[in-house]
């Protein structure tokens, strides 16, 4: 039997890997038939010897490879002997976190003949539902707006999300997590490039803004993630601009804006480049673009281009 775990979301794939390992340990208590093979140190022949060895406890073996698809020699030899591994009562587990071409022969074989599971990065409602369930596993609730803010702050990095959730539930114990808890304890994950993009928009530099957006897309950033970051930043600018209109100083903002000091520092000069009515219109436009994407009325990349063109 062969199991194939792969995908960009290494948090959920690692959790699944650990579940399989713990299940094997529970059934096969000797621990002698759980093997990790590092292909930087071991060869296909080492694996074959391990696979063919007879267990003195008549237990199932679990042999784990990480990043085996990058080893060309191993792949070629494995595929030549693949039938015996598929039909075996023992378990061979491939754990892959690196991007692998779908045309790779071993990848195609594993997808077709094994028990495979892909872990894609979570987005939208799937991400929100995952975070909500994680929090509820601790017997703690979260306010819906607080959940939205947590997603805005962290994005789909589940390693960071899990750490932030542990911190929040420890702080609130059995009480409900509120917006103020997110603002107090969670540091927003904003990429420096987002600030550059906002600066280009504020300067009405349509060409630069479009170039920066496409750089994000080219490196694999999800369009909805980009829009959520732009939304997050413009919401901050609206908050800060409103306080500036009320003649609040940067020092007063630290207390009244309820934003992380890093965000205020980076956003204060940007907020001064906009009129408050202009920010409100842009914020409304972001909502319209988000709705158009999620309802399938327009392709995400096209929607971002139109959004930039209309506000610059």
The class by helix and strand makeup works out as: alpha/beta
* Individual helix count: 16
Name the CATH class of the largest domain: Mainly Alpha
Radius of gyration: 25 Å
Distance between the termini: 57 Å
Major sheet details? 5 strands, parallel
Which topology of the largest domain does CATH recognise?
Zinc Finger, Delta Prime, domain 3
Q: Regions with pLDDT < 50 over 5+ consecutive residues?
A: none
Spatial strand arrangement across the major sheet: 2-3-4-1-5
- Using the alpha-carbon principal axes, give the shape: elongated
Order of helices and strands: EHEHEHHEHEHHHHHHHHHHH
Number of strands: 5
The residue fraction in helices comes out at 55-70%
How many domains? The number is 3
Which architecture of the largest domain does the CATH hierarchy give at level 2?
Up-down Bundle
Mean pLDDT: 84
- Percentage of β-strand residues: 5-15%
In short:
It is built from 16 helices and five strands. The chain has 312 residues and is an alpha/beta fold.
Commentary on this structure:
By secondary structure, this protein is an alpha/beta fold. The chain has 16 helices and five strands. The chain has helices at residues 10-27, 44-52, 72-80, 82-86, 105-113, 124-136, 144-154, 158-172, 179-185, 192-202, 206-218, 223-245, 250-256, 261-271, 276-294, 300-311; strands at residues 2-6, 34-37, 62-66, 91-96, 115-118. It has a five-stranded parallel sheet, sandwiched between helices. Strand 2 (34-37), helix 2 and strand 3 form a beta-alpha-beta unit. The longest helix has 23 residues, at 223-245. The model has no long low-confidence stretch (mean pLDDT 84).
